[in-house]
Amino acid sequence: MQYKIFPPETVNASIQLPASKSISNRVLIINALAYSAHDVKNLSESDDTQVMLKALSSNGTKFDIGPAGTAMRFLTAFLSKIIGEWEITGSERMKNRPIKLLVDALHELGAKIEYLEKEGYPPLKIYGSSLKGKTIELEGNVSSQYISALLMIGPCMENGISIRLKNKVISRPYIEMTLSLMKYFGAKVNWEGDTISVTGDGYTPQEFFVESDWSAASYWYEIAALLPGKTTLHLPDLFEDSLQGDCAVKDIFESLGVHSQFNGGIRMTSEKTGNPTFEYNFINQPDLAQTVVVACALNGIPFRFTGLQSLRIKETDRISALINELKKLGFVITAPDDGVMEWNGETCTPETNPIIDTYDDHRMAMAFAPAAICFPGIVIDEPGVVSKSYPRYWDDLKKAGFTIETL
Fold this sequence. Notes:
Elements lengths: L1 E5 L4 E4 L6 H13 L13 H10 L5 E3 L4 H12 L3 E6 L10 H9 L3 E4 L8 E5 L6 E5 L4 H10 L7 E6 L5 H13 L4 E4 L2 E4 L15 H13 L4 E6 L12 H6 L3 E5 L2 E6 L7 E4 L7 H10 L4 E4 L11 H11 L12 E3 L11 E2 L5 H7 L9 E4 L11 H7 L3 E4 L1
Helix pairs in contact: 1-2, 1-3, 1-6, 2-3, 3-5, 4-5, 5-6, 7-9, 9-10, 9-11
């Protein structure tokens, strides 16, 4: 299936964003480890969260989590300490996303995990048992989800766990989010210098309400940036003191002419920016990169973005995907070094009727859909991928005045 998208002349709407997928997934794991009788309120409707919820409420021993990378990592650690024999697999892409670093760390803690196909990759056979904590070392530039997965099971292990992070830490706000949620549920944690320590004193069941998703807000910031002076948006239930690192989107887009005011959420307006170039280090917010790359290119703002190392191992190789798809729109983007993307203003002839491939990646679809503002009639291939994090995305675009035709 494909969607052909046409933009409105102006946008004036209130959009209820989905609940945070990142918070939902972490709270579900912690809630299960706490043996809580409380349901988590306002859970994300995303595929990732629904996969996690299904697995945690299942009486089965085999789990297929599809393309849900967060579920693969969190459940691998979780199942390692739940008595029983488990198998976990996923999509073909998931079978090519590395998990060896997490499995090696779990082995250090006493876990028994086997690779069922390719060494270092899912699917996995997990023999759950009680684990004994100790101090382990991890590179700080590995996926923060590995670190979060280990931290969350720490309170339920004998002796807890200490993780010594070597070299530069990427996606630090996601680790801080995990620790904040753990503390909310009564865990005793401490991050001092390069070491995070968690005691083995367990969790205390708590009620919890999940706030709206700042990552989902990024696509509305992009729309505002592409319609300067013609956008007024209200996004409820976004918290100023958010646990989400992606709340930095409001500051990033302030540099691109989008202004935010907190008023029962965010009220957003925009104006044309005079910013001649833009540089930013996405080390702490890699999930925002696609949105900002597309917004800058379409606004004619040359950029240099760093801290993008993890984009190569996401749902797809997001750096290559961005380069390929933006070339269809006439922009020549380069990746001169590891974790770096640049655009110096170089253009090429755009395709007459561009069709954007989504690579089974929800963020590719959502980052490129607003390009209809500059390329009316742009086509998004396989638009259903948005269900991974924002199932109502296309309905919300229609609510904001976009016209969407099914091809």
